[in-house]
Design a protein that fits this description.
The chain is 37% helix and 21% strand. It is an alpha/beta fold and 226 residues long. It has an eight-stranded mixed β-sheet, with helices on both faces. The chain is globular and about 40 Å long.
Length: 226
């Protein structure tokens, strides 16, 4: 994407009512006013809040919002030029139950109050295979502890990935920590018993992976309260 297109998207994001872009300073000094008040002040309802972490173009958040109008969805990514597309589609289709938050995922505890989030989706994250990149892996212990803080007790986390490495790493960590694993399969489209929402919603790249014969893995788990 050219720099002119990026700048154009950044400018449009500034005008979108469904895009929130707090600064790092705003989050760290606790002046982000939506923390603890997403339902009341943004969505204007009391419906469950479901996050998609690393939402990319926002496809999954949009599909989930269309499929489950009784829930609120928030796609989170640091790259606003990517989720610009999802935000624009949501506005064009008058989807009021989906928003996009531009921030780093490690700051999630500064964006949501304890127990404010009902579910989390992690869809096709970078597996960060190299050891020195472990701290950026979205299911490492530090991230799990952050999710534990913002999730309601026993709130579900869904991991969907084409990376066998990420799938195996996460399962091993969850077993070691004694967390509750509800469903896990290395080939969710070849399994039985997977939740229908997992196979009925696909991103553009996921459809490409499947066309290439790649297996898509899926894990559903919850974290025990501290």
């Amino acid at each position: 994407m050219g720099s002119k297109n990026k700048l154009k998207r950044f400018r449009e994001n500034d005008t979108f009512a469904n895009v929130l872009q707090p600064s790092r300073e705003e989050l760290l000094d606790k002046s982000f006013l939506l923390k603890g008040r997403w339902r009341e002040d943004h969505f204007k309802n009391d419906q469950p809040i479901i996050l998609e972490l690393g939402c990319g173009k926002g496809e999954y958040s949009i599909h989930l919002a269309q499929k489950f109008p009784q829930n609120n969805f928030i796609g989170i990514d640091i790259k606003g030029a990517r989720f610009w597309r999802g935000a624009k589609i949501a506005l064009e289709e008058s989807l009021t139950n989906v928003a996009f938050l531009r921030t780093q995922i490690e700051l999630i505890v500064h964006c949501f109050a304890p127990g404010e989030v009902d579910e989390i989706w992690i869809t096709f994250p970078d597996p960060q295979i190299k050891y020195k990149r472990t701290k950026h892996r979205l299911t490492n212990k530090s991230f799990l502890d952050a999710y534990r803080q913002v999730l309601r007790p026993h709130g579900r986390i869904h991991l969907k990935t084409d990376s066998e490495f990420m799938h195996g790493y996460t399962l091993g960590l969850l077993h070691g920590l004694g967390e509750d694993i509800h469903f896990a399969h290395h080939d969710v489209y070849g399994s039985t018993g997977a939740p229908e929402v997992v196979t009925s919603v696909q991103t553009f790249y996921e459809a490409q992976y499947l066309a290439q014969g790649k297996k898509i893995t899926y894990t559903s788990f919850s974290l025990n309260p501290d």
